[in-house]
Recover the amino acids of this structure.
């Protein structure tokens, strides 16, 4: 029923982490039927999912034409299709966006990442909207992997907030060890929820991902 693509042409900004976390939040806490599409050649989210305690189905689709053929079919079958988008400006990204109700872009508030987002990812979103006559109808963005101490996020927020095509989410996802370790721990951030023995930084990470998921979910209700 709803397709959401985690999309930013910059690698390493948190697309895979965001897609896996949000997809499993929908499944665990909203009891939705969710399918994850991994559009990356490496297939890392597909691989990650195999190690998680979940019945969620996934597919690995890297051919741009197959995206056009298969996304509408998956959309019929599931409540949500969550797509882990591809780095670099590639045709597959445009096809993904043309079939997505919403795009969600994690953006690191460092160096030239905001510039790259504005010049490349935003352009892709605008192109997709022209081609598809309006999709993705909601394009959201959030600061991802922000340093807890650095003030760079305070500079980045107003820059992103003034982009008319983008809905800037309030949640900031900080760079925290527990998040970076999830894959090697064969875990997803929700596996660390409600265990009081975990460190405060772990609880903060869980809260941030909860807040992010809730914000995205609310946005999707508006579509
Ligand atoms: N909030 C975070 N804190 C710490 N490490 C993170 C965080 N988000 C992602 N990472 C790590 O950063 C790397 C890149 O993240 P990933 O989700 O794979 O980005 P992308 O899919 O955009 O390339 C991975 O090693 C991941 O574990
Ligand atoms: Mg990735």
């Amino acid at each position: 029923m709803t397709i959401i693509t985690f999309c930013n042409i910059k690698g390493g900004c948190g697309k895979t982490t965001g897609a896996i976390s949000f997809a499993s939040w929908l499944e665990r806490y909203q009891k939705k039927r969710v399918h994850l599409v991994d559009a990356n050649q490496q297939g890392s989210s597909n691989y990650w999912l195999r190690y998680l305690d979940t019945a969620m189905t996934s597919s690995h689709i890297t051919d741009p034409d197959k995206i056009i053929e298969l996304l509408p079919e998956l959309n019929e079958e599931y409540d949500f299709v969550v797509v882990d988008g591809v780095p670099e400006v590639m045709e597959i990204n445009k096809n993904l966006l043309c079939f997505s109700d919403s795009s969600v872009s994690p953006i690191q508030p460092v160096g030239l990442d905001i510039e790259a987002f504005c010049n490349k990812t935003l352009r892709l979103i605008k192109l997709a909207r022209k081609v598809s006559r309006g999709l993705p109808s909601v394009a959201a963005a959030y600061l991802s992997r922000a340093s807890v101490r650095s003030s760079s996020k305070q500079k980045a927020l107003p820059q992103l907030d003034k982009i008319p095509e983008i809905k800037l989410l309030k949640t900031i996802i900080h760079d925290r060890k527990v998040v970076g370790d999830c894959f090697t721990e064969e875990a997803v951030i929700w596996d660390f929820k409600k265990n009081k023995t975990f460190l405060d930084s772990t609880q903060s990470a869980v809260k941030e991902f909860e807040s992010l998921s809730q914000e995205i979910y609310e946005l999707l209700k508006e579509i």
User: Anything to note?
Assistant: The radius of gyration is 16 Å.
